[in-house]
Amino acid sequence: MYTGLGLKDEIIKDKDIIWQCVSCNKCTNIYPKDVRPEGVMKALAHWLEDEGHTEIRPSHIFDEEFWGQVERTGRIEDAHVIMGFFKKTNQPLIQEWLTAFTMRMIKHLPFVHLIRMGMNFMFTLRTKSWGHTGKVLREYVEQREEEAHRRRQQVKEAA
Ligand code: SF4
Fold first, then answer.
1. Ligand 1 neighbours by CB, cut-off 6 Å
2. Atom of ligand 1 nearest to the CA of 26
3. pLDDT (tens digit, 9 = 90+) per residue, 137-149?
């Protein structure tokens, strides 16, 4: 890992570039077999957060909100994800772009679809028999987080 090769200062200097990766995976598709630059970018971004070299990014908060809803309900209700994200990032719930977006939906979507969306918003639905699946997913994510934490600790000790 770059942090273990004495390149920490270089990485910290260029940390804003690391956060510009949008996970499009173009690099991973053209690099030789088993080389995954996108994974390296993500690992470095987490390392920067863990080490306090950068604040927790909104994208990280959004991911947590998104994942939290999947884990709890087995579904994604966009409005709940956005509202949760706004709350956690101290943003107003009513925003100009969102109002314009909502008005366009009301104008263009079929009435039945709008009713269904409203019902989904009002009554948080849950995928049938989701309990066990959610538990298995949670365990898997916790395992991966522990592994990632262990790897970062090894990198830290090697640096
Ligand atoms: S580093 Fe790779 S995955 Fe990230 S934006 Fe660039 S090409 Fe896409």
1. 21-27, 37-38, 41
2. 7
3. 889 888 988 887 7
How far is 80 from 66, CA to CA, in rounded Å? Answer: 9
pLDDT tens digits, 73-129: 998 899 999 999 999 999 999 999 999 999 999 999 999 999 999 998 888 788 888
- The Cβ-side half-sphere exposure at 123, using a 13 Å CA radius, reads 5
Whether the model pTM is above 0.90 = no
Burial of 89-123, coded b for 16+ CB within 10 Å and e otherwise, reads: eeeeeeeeeeeeeeeeeeeeeeeeeeeeeeeeeee
d(CA 117, CA 125): 11
Asked if 1 and 155 count as a contact pair (C-beta separation under 8 A), the reply is yes
Q: Residue whose CA is closest, atom 8 of ligand 1?
A: 24
